[in-house]
Amino acid sequence: MNAGAPILAGLRVVELSAFVAAPLGGATLAALGADVIRVDPPGGGIDIDRWPLHGGSSLYWAGLNQGKRSVTIDTRSEAGQRQVSRLIAAPGEGGGIVLTNLPVQGWNSYGALSRLRPDLIMVVITGDRDGGAAVDYTVNAAVGFPWLTGPEDHDGPTNHVLPAWDGMTGFLAAFAILAAERHRRLHGEGQLVELSLADVAMAMAGHLGLIGEAILEPVPRGRFGNDVYGTFGHDFGTRDGRRVMVLALTPRQWLRLGEATGLSRALSEVESRVGADFRKEGDRWAHRKELCTLLDPWIAQRDLADVRKTFDRHGVLWSPYQTVKQLVAEDPRASLANPMFAEVAHPGLGTFLTTGSPLRFSAAAPVQPRTAPSLGEHTEEVLREFGLEP
Fold this sequence. Notes:
6-stranded parallel sheet, 390 residues
């Protein structure tokens, strides 16, 4: 690898996609230097105007397509289908890769495309394993998290706003492409890789012990508001109206929290009175309400700046709650002080702070944050590059 080149330079992926998971997979690869060519119908796909909008243009679309080349081709026509098929199957060591979450049948099936290029790699994202319709929010409803989210006394499910399964699936799709491409380099074989949002959610629930717990424990887990299940973590209010999240996941963190607040002795007295060992996460969890009763007034008597100074000096595990506005206004991690960010001019949207890849490699050049293309911007360029008629 040339240290002056991005780590995925030379990799070419054709993306046929919409919404979050597949576009995120492509954007993840593009941020590391891959040539990702997104193909949309003329006028844009079903996500071209998805909210949030600014000035009539989609910030969502721009964020998920940074660094890609945009091609518009009408795949409802046979001529358009032939063009895209030839683009996917174009020769080249790093090409012959397609990423999609759109229906695959007929001309764009793995069988049809692999006849044009036998070493084709195709990653297909679906909602359910059997191809049934499902999106992040329906998968989340099915896997049980809405019954664990929200205030303790809330009646009914509570959705959260982060499309977690889309995000995990998008990153896994990028991983799948790299794994399949490695296999192709070693063995000369392409392959079809299938990945569903539902399977990603089920796998994560299994890794976190939720499925085993549901099978083995007679009583289902409840919801616990802003308490972090099984350990000590809670939100508290400061004197100046801000809220902070305070955690102690390890014995050392618990010790530092007591030292920072001057409550070590009082916390030890609770420990002795209830017969607990607060070096253990489970004991801190079981007696969390009493612990919060001690910590709550200490934080409530201080402004956020005082809490920050004391907690940071003692190495407490904590964070202020921030709106996204406060994040970009106050937090240096979301600023030009973080090399992952750059000020980028986006067509139709303006110039704003834009992220690159969070990965940092010692032996390859980073790719600077880039704009998303305007729809169809590279159509003629790409088609001529691969010997196709515009």
